[in-house]
């Protein structure tokens, strides 16, 4: 019997397509269709992570009006423009967001401010087109120009719908397991509702689940045991309002701290905990950058099945280099990244072009690995 909990039913609010011009290596991406569950594949340096970074920028831009902080953190204003702002003076983007009642659209431009290497937001607009009506609605233009988006200041239902979906775009990357990583620190037990993007509050989240949802907690433990048979249970003992990530094995009473735990095991703990959270504790749009890093192939298969379950209610994007991960999904889930002369292209895979290969018992990874430079 599969070790899963039933996913709760929720409204599928999702990003249907995106147009991006001039962001980093994305010179011209025209109305790219985005599946509910998307697997981004391509050679090293092809630009898979650039699409994820674009949505991360949107989240910073809307969630806390921190666009300039994002720009500083990721190299400065000039680095955000294709081949630099001298060659590409504007970044333009347009998104289609699908909800139960129709299509919400949002567009904006970014210009470079050379004086302090910042960016300026301009030409923002939004509209909602009811699915019951054949024609598109008119755009509502936002007149303000500034260093931060003005969309959060709008009060219309359409603007609020777009704002609430895009600000929830969350990128999860559990790569940092170095000695000073957040996951090794004692964490405030009250920070237990949502898992942070780096997994730093994992112990607090697990402690909260253990106390309020013991069946869900036991499910996480059993799933870990499927991959790590020597694992018995976590040891979560709050002290002065903080908790440290520790666990115990089946074959001794020794308690292992996170510093004595392999990188792959720590990432597995984070992934399985996150993917087992109730859907109301997950963002609507989730991005994962190479989640297979350090995982055994059996663990990759388990995590892939969890991604599929979560995608029943949340939109999921996975950038991967793993053939094992690719083989867990369908042709319709794949978006391929290629890079020629510094320009990234992103494309869906047409079924008629590759179905014959799959009918001849080729795996998706077989086709991928046989292609030049790991692209399809």
Q: Biggest sheet: strands, sense, closure? A: 6 strands, antiparallel
- As laid out across the biggest beta sheet, the strand order is 2-1-4-5-6-7
Computed CA radius of gyration, to the nearest angstrom: 22 Å
Unreliable segments (pLDDT under 50, ≥5 consecutive)?
A: 1-10
- Which structural class fits the helix and strand makeup? alpha+beta
Through-space gap between termini: 36 Å
How many extended strands?
Answer: 17
Layout of helices and strands:
Blueprint: E1 14-21, E2 29-33, E3 37-42, H1 48-63, H2 67-73, E4 90-99, E5 102-113, E6 118-130, E7 140-142, H3 157-166, E8 170-172, E9 187-188, H4 202-212, H5 214-227, E10 231-234, E11 242-243, E12 246-249, E13 255-257, H6 263-275, E14 285-289, H7 297-310, E15 315-319, H8 323-326, E16 334-340, E17 343-348, H9 351-359, H10 364-370
Helix pairs in contact: 1-2, 4-5, 6-7
Question: Would you write up a description of this structure?
Answer:
The chain has 376 residues and is α+β, with helices and mostly antiparallel strands. The chain is 28% helix and 26% strand. It contains ten helices and 17 strands. The strands form four sheets. Strands 2-1-4-5-6-7 form a six-stranded antiparallel sheet, covered by helices on one side. A six-stranded mixed sheet has the order 8-14-15-3-16-17, with helices on both faces. Strands 10-12-13 form a three-stranded antiparallel sheet. Strand 5 and strand 6 form a beta hairpin. Helix 1 runs antiparallel to helix 2. The protein is globular, with a radius of gyration of 22 Å. The N terminus is likely disordered.
